[in-house]
Amino acid sequence: MLKWIMRLAAALAVFVIAAGWWLFAGFSKAPAAAPGLLDIDQWRSMIRDAGGDLPTEIRVLEVGHDSAPMLAARAGAFTGQWLTSYNSVQVVFPDSTLVIGGALDRSTSEGMVQSPEDWSFDDAAYRKVVDAMLTADKVLMTHEHPDHVMAIARHPDPDALAPRLWLNAPQSATLPQFANGELPAVLRDLPPRLDGTVQWVAPGVVAIPMAGHSPGAQLFFVTLQNGHEYLMIGDTVWSMSSIEDLTMRPVFTQFVVFDPDEDRAAIRKQVRAIHDLMQANPQLTVFPSHDRIWLGKLSEEGRIIWGFAD
Ligand SMILES: [Zn+2]
Ligand SMILES: [Zn+2]
After folding, report:
1. Which ligand is closest in space to the CA of residue 147?
2. Left, alpha or beta for 307 (phi > 0: left; psi -120 to 50: alpha)?
3. In angstroms, how far apart are the furthest CA atoms of the chain?
4. Which ligand is nearest to the CA of 112?
5. 207 FRET partner, CA 20 to 30 A, in 5, 9, 101, 176?
């Protein structure tokens, strides 16, 4: 009898270890190669061919921040903290602006608190994002998740926002689902303006559809007048250490965060492609939405500026 109990306990222990490995460490590594996924020469030639006055600055306005165990952002990272920024990006031209991302509002932020000591929300910054959308030529988003759309979904003047809002088809289709409440009809019924291909959207700015994290996920390639090149990668990864380690979020996040699920196979390839693009173009500034330490480093290097232009 004791022998059977021991065997059962051993089998149970093996099962628990295997399940833990699957949930928190396994099936998250990038493949050895992902050829043809990111074509920087195509983006550069689109920008060159279209011409126009290129932007002069990239600005990032943080509306809130938080922290979580790094394990949430990178499989197998059993130590370390992920400092999380929630923000919106402003691309500044000589006479105009673009806004990319609607961040989150206070009530959405309060519903997502991970670490009460590190969490904060800046109401004045959120109001600034809302206002900046109405002076921008275009308002776009990297993807349709709630922490990237709320200043759009709950904008106090949706009629003024709608003509500026440039979404792709999956973003238009799923915005009502992620808007955390009733979406104004003028936004709900807005037809997509992006065509779902790699597309020039403004001088120096190209949108690159990259379904995976969500169906409507897209990257933005931006070239400034001074020649600096940027790739905004949204939530493809949450921490740039995922690119360095070629390791995406753990399977666990699929069960506790995402509905619908991410396309993990697509993201693993994207992690490889971004990694290899950075190796081949060391001057390229890659930045994800939420990596607060990385954004701080870019600010110190003068690559981005905190806060929106007035
Ligand atoms: Zn997301
Ligand atoms: Zn996000």
Report:
1. 2
2. left
3. 82
4. 2
5. 176
Inter-CA distances, 81 with 36, 66, 280, 291, Å? 33, 10, 29, 11
Residue 178 has pLDDT above 90, yes or no: no
Strand order across the beta sheet in which 229-234 lies? 199-202, 205-209, 218-223, 229-234, 285-288
Closest ligand, as measured to the CA of 178: 1
d(CA 70, CA 76): 9
Ligand nearest to the CA of 104: 2
Lowest pLDDT segment from 8-22, 98-112, 123-137, 200-214: 8-22
pLDDT value at residue 19: 85
CATH number given to 2-306: 3.60.15.10
The Cα–Cα gap between 91 and 230 comes to: 11
Do 205 and 220 contact (CB within 8 A), yes or no?
yes
Tokens found for residue 73: 């952002």
- CA 20 to centroid of ligand 2, rounded, Å: 25
Q: Which residues of 235-261 are buried (b: 16+ CB within 10 A; e: fewer)?
A: bbbbbbbbbebbbbbbbbbeeeeeeee
Residue in the structure block whose two tokens are 């959120």: 126
Structure tokens at 3: 């022998």
What are the tens digits of pLDDT across the range 222-236?
999 999 999 999 999
Tokens of 199: 């597309």
Expressed in angstroms and rounded, the spacing between residue 110 Cα and the centre of ligand 2 is: 15
pLDDT, tens digit (0-9, with 9 covering 90-100), for 21-80: 888 888 899 999 999 999 999 999 999 999 999 999 999 999 999 999 999 999 999 999
Task: Please report which residue ranges of the chain form alpha helices under DSSP H.
Answer: 2-24, 40-50, 106-110, 123-135, 150-153, 158-161, 169-178, 185-188, 241-244, 251-256, 264-280, 292-300
The rounded Å distance from CA 70 to ligand 1 centre is: 16
Q: By percentage, how much of the chain surpasses pLDDT 70?
A: 100
State residue 208 phi and psi, 5-degree precision.
Answer: -125, 100
How do beta strands 81-92 and 97-100 pair?
Answer: antiparallel
